Amino acid sequence: MAAREGMPKTGAQDATDRPGALRMERYQRERRFRRIVWPHALPPAVVAVAVVIDLVWPPFNTFPLLATVSVTAAPLYSLAWTVTSGAVALLTGWLLSFRESGEVISRPNVIGFTTLVTLTVVAAFLNRMFAREREQLRTSRQVAEAVQRAMLPTVPERVRGLAMATRYQAAQVEALIGGDLYAVHDTSHGLRMVIGDVRGKGTQSATLVNTLLGVFHAAALQTPDLPSVVQAAEIQVQDLKAREADAPYEDFVTAVFVEILPDRSAFHMANRGHPAPLLVHGGRVTTLEPKEPSLPLGLGDLAGPVVPVDRYDLPPGATLVLFTDGIIEARDRTGAFFDPVPPLTCPLPPDPGAVLDTMLTALFRHTDELDDDAAALAVTRLPDGQVEGTGAAVRP
Questions:
Q1: How far apart, in whole angstroms, are the C-alpha atoms of residue 289 and residue 123?
Q2: pLDDT band at 395 (very low <50, low <70, confident <90, very high)
Q3: Is 160 left (phi over 0), alpha (psi -120 to 50) or beta?
Q4: Which residues cross the membrane (predicted)?
Q5: What is the pLDDT of residue 176?
Q6: Where in the chain is the domain with CATH 3.60.40.10?
Q7: Angle made by CA atoms 153, 379, 307, in degrees to the nearest 5
């Protein structure tokens, strides 16, 4: 199953995924390069401004301006380039002083040069501090993302004429373990799926993620209908909240449970306060809003025991796209939220990986960085002529 990766894949990666993955990685590198170019141009720009001011208005003392060059370079450059920036500022000050008076040794100049040297030394120490902080943050983020991916199960690529793809991306501004989850299980009642988002981050949310994944796998195999699966998850969340002394009462999990019928003609869906999934087919996108809203998991005691379930047709070639709120809550520079519908409103192949990559490419164009973890799961009903293989059930 070709699945070009807008987000890193959690399961085994097919060799056909690499071209798409490389294109996405290259695109993200170009975005990061554009974001860091202008700050790195700041120290040489300060030097240039100091030279221009000295040429236009010679009485102006440019030493205070040049003194900021090394300090500005400290959080941006390496140690060698930070020291080099200070040396360039010192040389520029010497040349400007010599051009004006023909002499360098004077009390004001000595004070200015001493200031430049002192601030360059200070900038070198600051550079080392910034480098250690960046390395610690990078390590923490990598560990958190690795733990998050390890918790998520492997999703089969094809099951009963259905193709699947997943994507996961950790937030770029957080180093904590997120609460996004998804799982798929092939059962005698049909293909059952869940995607959810636990409120909060850290070890408490990780515990709830593992608990929900465990109860979903057990209930998906043993219960006869989708409402029973949802009820089992609700009971488990309520029990975990009751046993956790420090768990706030308002802790909850938004989730969407889906059951695709064995003949693939339709699917049932129970939405517990989660962003509405999308059905992509023939260049059109349908937002699958629940007919009757339901409270998230963990708050079911505030409502009745009935689990509202909606039924939708799944025509051949259609793709069901489920995602967490990290995608639709991504903002651009003006504060506008990302809308996944427009980029998917175009002819797309019956390939869940291609659909997710189209959405995520538009997402990365929309926002500079994600403020929350983002997970996506897509399943496509293959055209009848492409049905082959069954795939293995998800391993816990």
A1: 55
A2: very low
A3: left
A4: 36-57, 77-98, 110-130
A5: 55
A6: 153-386
A7: 80
The one-letter amino acid code at 396 reads P
> Is residue 83 within a helix (H) or strand (E), and if so which, with residue range?
helix 79-101
- Higher-scoring residue by pLDDT: 13, 31: 31
Name beta bridge partners: 285. Answer: 280
- pLDDT confidence bin for 102, thresholds 50/70/90: low
Q: Which of 154, 67, 43, 39 is nearest to 393 (CA)?
A: 154
- 184: tokens are 């798929």
Q: What is the C-alpha separation between 230 and 335, in angstroms, rounded?
A: 35
In this structure, which topology does domain 153-386 adopt according to CATH?
A: Phosphatase 2c; domain 1 (3.60.40)
Residues 393, 395: Cα–Cα separation, whole Å = 6
Residue 202, SS3?
coil
What is the radius of gyration, based on Cα positions, of the chain?
28
CB 22 within 8 A of CB 30: no
Instruction: Judge if pTM exceeds 0.85.
Output: no
Cβ atoms within 10 A of the Cβ of 278, count? 20
Query: pLDDT: is 117 or 279 the higher one?
Result: 279
* Residue 103, Ramachandran bin (φ over 0: left; ψ between -120 and 50: alpha; else beta): beta
